[in-house]
């Protein structure tokens, strides 16, 4: 008879609210550092929440789901800053001035990253215009 009572107690406990289903109970999610019984001043929880927010922003930038036009503008500026030196290096090479190989390597890496960011900028811009 005691086994039956133990089984019924376990079932009642398992039906209670699971902390993994509550997004505020996960470290890094907004609301975790200000959960019940906490002041919100814990530096580890604050940094974890800031890191989660930054990661979410970066994820939305690269998947084309940005809602804030300021972030899209900053993405375009970063892309231009990385891509323009490659264009200027190519123009200098066409005019006869040759850069060293390590400068070309740097310009190719930065320019290709800038081109990818500019393509992403256009993708996000089209997504903002379509809303």
The rough form would be described as elongated
Helicity, as a percent range: 55-70%
**Which series of helices and strands comes N to C?**
HHHH
Structural class: mainly alpha
Mean pLDDT: 80
> How many distinct beta strands?
0
Individual helix count: 4
Low-confidence stretches: none
* Biggest beta sheet attributes: none
What number of domains? 2
Radius of gyration: 26 Å
Taking the alpha carbons of the first and last residues, their distance comes to: 63 Å
User: What proportion strand?
Assistant: under 5%
What attributes characterize this protein structure?
mainly alpha, 131 residues, 4 helices
Question: How would you summarize the topology of this molecule?
Answer:
Layout: H1 2-14, H2 43-63, H3 69-94, H4 101-130
Task: Give a written overview of the molecule.
The chain is an all-alpha fold and 131 residues long. It has two domains: 48 residues, no CATH class; 66 residues. 69% of the residues lie in helices and 0% in strands. The chain has four helices and no strands. The longest helix has 30 residues. The mean pLDDT is 80.
